[in-house]
Amino acid sequence: MLEITCPWCGPRDETEFDYGGEAHIDRPKDPDKLTDEAWAEYLFMRKNPKGPHLERWMHACGCRRWFNVRRDTFTHEITAVYRMGEKPPGDGA
Amino acid sequence: MSRQVNRRPEGGRIDRDRSLGFTFNGRRYTGFAGDTLASALLANGVMLVGRSFKFHRPRGIFSCGAEEPNAIVQLGAGARTEPNLRATQIELFEGLEAASVNCWPSVEFDAGAVSDWFSRLMPAGFYYKTFMWPARFWPQYEYVIRHAAGLGRAPAEKDPDRYEKFHVHCDVLVAGGGPAGLAAAFAAGRSGARVILADEHSEFGGALLGLGAGIGGKPAIEWVESTVGKLRGMAEVRLLPRSTVFGYYDHNDLGIAERVTDHLGPAAPPGPPRQRLWKVRAKQVVLAAGAHERPLVFADNDRPGVMLASAAQAYVNRYAVRPGERAVVVTNNDSAYQVALDLDDAGVKVAALVDLRPAPEGPLADALRDRGIDVLGGRAVVATSGGRRVDAVEVGRLNDDADRIVGGTRRINCDLVCVSGGWNPAVHLFSQSRGKLRFDAAGACFTPGDSYQAERSAGACNGAFRLADCLAQGLAAGAAAARDAGFRKGRAPAAPKAPEPEAAPLRAVWRIPLPGDRARGAKQFVDLQHDVTAADVALAAREGYAAVEHLKRYTTTGMGTDQGKTSNVNALGILGQVTGTDIAGVGATTFRPPYTPVGYGLLAGRDVDHLFDPARRTPMHAWHESVGAVFEDVGQWKRAWYYPRGAESMRAAVDRECLAVRNSVGIVDASTLGKIDVQGADALELLNRVYTNAWDTLKPGRCRYGLMLGEDGMLFDDGVTSCLGENHYHMTTTTGGAERVLAWLEQWLQTEWPRLKVYLTSVTTHWAVAAIQGPNARRLLAELCDDVDLGAFPFMSWRDGTVAGIPARIFRVSFSGELSYEINVPSSLGVALWQALMTAGARYGITPYGTEAMLVLRAEKGYVVVGHDTDGTVTPQDLGMDWIVSKKKKDFLGKRSFARSDTARPDRKHLVGLLTEDPREVVPEGSQIVEEVRPAPPMPMGGHVTSSYWSAALGRSIAMALLVNGRNRHGETVTISLPDRNVRAAVTKPVFYDPEGEKLRA
């Protein structure tokens, strides 16, 4: 079980959190202007890397805040935790 | 009752004053406190304890610990029976009952043993090869195979015992309480760190309990006792005996199975749990799991009486049991020499020590020769003979390459063969932690290489087999772990002296060659539990299963309940030989938790029955119970399903409840409806973004129905939202969707729209809701409420008022199609409201109705239930609800997806009504509509029935369905395919009752 550090509550067991998939996918400003391909890209396509991954988690059994995590999908090492709206530290994933 | 014929007259760590009676395979025996089931059986002269998995060959006690492949027993009877336990780890208690597994009718005579005669027909991959064809016979094959296979029996009854879980944090977790683990715990504990020391045995000391070794000039056991005493004195050290660290997971999360009262049997006190699961998050871990001795692979090496040398030593020393009368010790390393000396001390005649190495020298060899024990160098046991027990071994001379037996063989009579093929460090936990193993050529074993998590290995599990090294490594690891956990005080204490003669290198021979005249037929077992032989490994490699993970699955080596603790490395060594690679190149299979099996009860803990998932009850629940309501689960809620009167059937009760609503007035507990209080300057903006329709025109006092979609345009939830005032709304959701909708809105607000000033509060349980529905609803309300002008209270509006003296918020909305008021009052006053309505409603024959009637009533009106009539692939247009999708709003969640080609295509599945030709026919929900009837499946599919009920108001059945192109097929007849017949139904609009909505707005 992972140990995830909530930016507000500190380190907690993974079972307290909900997973929210890939981070930094902005909702298009004007969806009607997008081609079907571009909308499908936003809607369905997600990265599936073996390695560092920027993703969203929510502290469901705690403060219920969403935040970002950089986690290595292979080693499960968590190398960064940062708040919504913040840029990933360093050069991202 | 038989005598303990093999018990030594004195010594051992047993309590001879506490005699314990037990039964094995129905026969009564006695042992002593401190015995395991295995040691007690050996004391009583019982060596044959089981039959092998595939060939049903007789098998005896092979080890004295967790690695046991043979002595697998069924413990206890009835609800407490437990399969596949290792007799070597079961502590004896008064009244213990155990039986062999995998034998019928008895272990002495096993009918399945005929399979041994045909064993040449059952090579590796036998099942895969034999039972493939014809495929349709597989169910019959499977029945026979499943009966023939399998070890123990699971209990058929509910587990009567209690289990619990502890979640703990510590600075240093030490896994294993032998010399290295005790030393590590001591060094870490001295620093003040929070230490947990867990060991699977009843007492600490590990291998030292079975050795005659000395530490610091005294017997080792004195060092053990003094160290345990010091640890007990340390406030931050927690000692867990009978506790197996069974799993090493991510981020230093470890699982420990503590057997709290298992060793007491029926005498267990009622207070404590039977077992306790410790879920430990450790800053640092010291692995001190010890090592397992490795067998040697020679012909018929599975005969009862063949035993690991260290096990024989532990039985004579720790348990004061002679496992045989006349022993042959066969070894490729030095450790078995002391075994031979200890056996001799214990009065077991040692017929010979056979050493694979050519010229055994040194003080131990001299000691044996001084006692007149033959030390035969450069030779090996090539085969055994005997029936239910070994009666002799054949010893032959190995050539230099150890691939041939030179010359003839010599027979030596014996009833005990002590084997030592070297030692395998118990790297299971290290490997589970994703550490990389490396092959140590000197020890011919895998040892921990690069660490992956915050752990270090010490002692035998780290490849250090000498006692002095174990102590030194343990102390160093414990001190370093404490330091890394932030405890900087002190250094590792100096290691006490533990003199041992210098060890000579071992000679790794993975498979002892057969004498030339017996190249075929003889079985050289690699995996005793799964009956895998050296020839099976070679065959698998020849057939292309030479990758280690393939070999494992094809031969099933290492896949027994023992997880191959004694077999894996030998299998890899033989595979390496066959494929011409060395074992380091072959690699090891992945180790997975648990280290030894753990019960489901332990993993479940207290999370069973009503504690598994919380049950939510409405404020009026007790009232529903008092009138005999039948309940159904809706999410976590217990909702009244229907209210039978006397012996009334469900159908009759639901009919009566529905007709009461249609003809007079019914009352339903709608408290479970999800309710979210929405406030803030941008509350309206949020509604406009998440609902498909426009909300700008909604005035205070008014309500509006809305649909929420996912970004894929598919229906997500629905409900009525009311404007309470400027920037203040009361949102309702489906009962099951309350949490999901709140989380969904929060996610958008926090992640995408952080600038919106909106605050959401779940108020579901703040309110109790009684909905009165039916033509007499207004008359009833008027009797209890005089501060609301009911004449000026139109459909889809709400009013604050007083009902039966209780402050209430009344919504005029309807899920039944009738005149309806949903009366919301503070939860604590729900029962009072309900009772007042029941009393005042008596003159109208007010009828409480449940969820089933509610579903019928809404279906008559064609109202969908999200998740019942929809499944995540349904758009508002599919439901014919275009009217609620705004054309004017520039954007809302899901809007863009309407233009996707698949969503926009005209021939999607649409919601339709179905009227069966036979009006009495109520087809099951989920039934398939077929476009063409054929004699047998597959048939072209047209859709499925989503809702189906008997409508008492209409006097016939009604159904709704999702049907391909259904909107354009009204008037057609379709066929619903049931398992035993076909039903024809007419396609209609999905509204069956009051299509104009006159009653609703009355």
Give a written overview of the molecule:
The complex is a heterodimer of chains A (93) and B (1002). Helices cover 10% and strands 35% of the residues of chain A. By secondary structure, chain A is mostly beta strands. Chain A has a domain at 1-23 and 47-84: Folate-binding superfamily (Folate-binding fold, 2-Layer Sandwich), CATH 3.30.2270.10. In chain A, the strands form two sheets. Chain A has a four-stranded antiparallel β-sheet with strand order 3-4-5-6, with no helix packed on it. Chain A has a two-stranded antiparallel sheet with strand order 1-2. Chain A is globular. The two termini of chain A are 22 Å apart. The model of chain A has no long low-confidence stretch (mean pLDDT 94). With 1002 residues, chain B is of the alpha+beta class. Chain B folds into six domains: 1-160, Ubiquitin-like (UB roll) (Roll); 163-291 and 425-484, FAD/NAD(P)-binding domain (3-Layer(bba) Sandwich); 295-421, FAD/NAD(P)-binding domain (3-Layer(bba) Sandwich); 516-580, Arc Repressor Mutant, subunit A (Orthogonal Bundle); 674-765, Alpha-Beta Plaits, CATH 3.30.70.1400; 906-1002, Beta Barrel (Elongation Factor Tu (Ef-tu), domain 3), CATH 2.40.30. Chain B is built from 24 helices and 49 strands. In chain B, the strands form 13 sheets. In chain B, strands 8, 9, 12, 13, 14, 15 and 28 form a seven-stranded mixed β-sheet that branches. Chain B has a six-stranded mixed β-sheet with strand order 40-41-42-39-33-43. Chain B is elongated and about 115 Å long. The model of chain B has no long low-confidence stretch (mean pLDDT 93). Chain A binds chain B through residues 1-3, 13, 18, 20, 26-28, 30-32, 34, 36, 39-40, 42-43, 56, 58, 60, 64-66, 75-76, 84-85, and chain B through 167, 249-253, 279, 281, 434, 452, 711-712, 743, 746-747, 750-752, 754, 890-891, 895-897, 899-901.
Question: Strands, helices and their partners?
Answer:
The complex is a heterodimer of chains A (93) and B (1002).
Chain A (H helix, E strand, L loop, with lengths): L2 E4 L3 E4 L4 E5 L13 H9 L7 E7 L7 E7 L5 E6 L10
Antiparallel strand pairs in A: 1-2, 3-4, 4-5, 5-6
Chain B lengths: L14 E10 L2 E7 L3 H7 L4 E4 L6 E3 L11 E4 L6 E5 L9 E5 L13 H4 L8 H5 L7 H11 L14 E13 L3 H12 L4 E4 L15 E2 L2 E2 H13 L4 E4 L2 E7 L3 E7 L15 E13 L3 E3 L12 E3 H9 L8 E6 L3 H11 L3 E7 L7 H8 L3 E4 L1 E8 L3 E9 L6 E9 L2 E5 L2 E3 L2 H5 L4 E4 L4 E4 L6 E3 L9 H18 L40 E3 L4 E2 H9 L5 H8 L12 H12 L3 H4 L13 H5 L16 H6 L3 E5 L2 E6 L7 H14 L2 E4 L4 E6 L3 H8 L12 E7 L5 E11 L2 E6 L4 H15 L6 E4 L4 E7 L3 H8 L12 E7 L2 E7 L7 E7 L3 H12 L5 E2 L2 H10 L40 H4 L4 E8 L11 E3 L10 E11 L4 E9 L8 E5 L4 E7 L14
